[in-house]
Design a protein that fits this description.
single chain; 169 residues; alpha+beta; Ubiquitin-like (UB roll); Ribosomal Protein S8, Chain: A, domain 1; 5 helices; 28% helix
């Protein structure tokens, strides 16, 4: 039976951090989840489609880039469901912090890579992307936009700021 990891407000709505749900596709598993926890319906779906604001990952890959709700699942599959975050988030631009260094920090801190530029940490999700470099005369400084959201967003953001100040930014 596929396993579903629930994050942030989805944990609050279900009272669970992880559930096992019957289903042979992502859509079937999400429908079974809604039957068990009806309050999730308006959070997960817009009509019959997966809500844009919700992130669903199968083994670290966004299902939107697979077969969407029709993505087949094995009995051992793991889905990660991330709700939208209305608060508890922060975005900042870091100069001279290369993406490879931030990735190294996130992995050292126990982060799980969900897709390129997206990591799950305990209580937070970190998204980052390279920005256009800052140019001052002939000097060019790389920039990285970092967004941290979730229940523990502020604590993780402070940790990133400290690491950037020490090692990269």
């Amino acid at each position: 039976m596929p396993k579903v990891n629930l994050y942030a407000t989805f944990r609050d709505l279900t009272g669970q951090s992880q559930v096992r749900v019957e289903g042979k596709t992502v859509g079937e598993v999400l429908e079974a989840l809604v039957r068990a926890y009806p309050t999730l319906k308006e959070e997960l779906f817009e009509g019959e489609e997966l809500a844009e604001r919700v992130s669903v990952f199968l083994e670290g890959r966004d299902v939107r880039y697979l077969e969407g709700l029709a993505t087949p699942l094995t009995e051992e599959a793991t889905l990660d469901l991330f709700p939208p975050v209305a608060g508890g988030g922060r975005v900042e631009r870091f100069g001279a912090l290369p993406s490879w260094l931030l990735e190294r920090y996130l992995l050292e801190w126990g982060g799980k890579k969900l897709e390129e530029g997206v990591y799950a940490l305990r209580g937070a999700t970190v998204r980052f992307r390279e920005e256009a470099p800052l140019r001052v005369g002939s000097l060019s400084i790389s920039q990285l936009q970092v967004e941290v959201e979730g229940e523990e967003a502020e604590a993780w953001f402070q940790r990133i700021q400290l690491a950037a100040a020490r090692g990269g930014g």
